[in-house]
Amino acid sequence: MLRRSLLKLAGATAIALGAGQALAADMPAPFDKPEDVTIALVRYLSTGDFFQAYLSGVENQSEALGVDLRVFDSRQDAALQADMVDQAIALGVDGIIIQHGLTESMKEAAQRAVDAGIKVVAFDVNVENEAIPQIEQSDYMLGKLALEQAVKDNGTDFTAGYVYVPGIAPLDRRHVAWEETKNANPGITEAAMFGTLDNPIANSVANQARAVLQANPTINVVFAPYDEFAKGVKIAVDEAGLTDDIDIYSADVSTADISAMREPGSAWVATVATNPAVVGEVSVRALAMMLAGENPGASVIVPPTLITQDFLNEKDIKNMDDLSASMPQFAHADVAMTEWIQLPKR
User: Fold this and answer.
1) Contact call for residues 138 and 304 (beta carbons, < 8 A)
2) CB of 272 within 8 A of CB of 146?
3) Global pTM?
4) CA gap 324, 5 in Å, rounded
5) What is the pLDDT of residues 246-271, one digit of tens each?
């Protein structure tokens, strides 16, 4: 009774704040009894600030809905991630969020969940299943906006290093933007492609970047479309004393990234991102809509924003809270929304 009363109070508070959301007792089944709803987050990638923030968004939205959240972390073990989907099925969860992973290992596991009557959404992993909505940050646009800035800053004639690991859905989508940009600008030369997801990712990429930069002294732009990649490249650039000679363009953002971009003379000049916590919230909301019999759409896209070093310095942005204040779209995305879904407290 106490839990139900608190949930009703939370709903009333949301209305008082103008959120226009329903009391828990007026919510559609099964959220009229949210304590009986269990969802699982099955993760492939978890290293880095982005994934910590994404998890916090999932946790906060789950708490706002009053559901039981179970988190499974495979730490980049594809076979284990598939086993964890089976564990969630055996646990009898109502819904599953699959976060990243490999198509070949997750396709059949996701289908097993659907066959068991479990609602599933997938964030940044293509499980090739029409019954499973895809949550994404418009990864193609993440890459495109970053590369447009690279061309704006450096023209259409530069030598690039490119950090890429194929088989990861968001990186593959960003790769399309890279190939399009190269094909449209023959003066852009790809001197080296490298990349790894070995933990710790930033340090592993730094080890590769050291060798790449030494072997390719003409590189003056690095496209590293994942912030852990960019961190690794920045380590190597700093150590080589090339901060005045190389510009780094990335995707994703965190407080640590903002600090790195704002270091005096930093080579990391731009990134394109959404707020990962907001993406986590959207993932839960899309799943909640499915559990309530609603359709969030086959593709649930959170739009990204270009963030430049100049903008961060001009606005004296020190952390994600500052960024949200200067870019309101970072604080909330009006995506996968219904009037009955209670939002996390800000």
Assistant:
1) yes
2) yes
3) 0.79
4) 32
5) 999 999 999 999 999 999 999 999 99
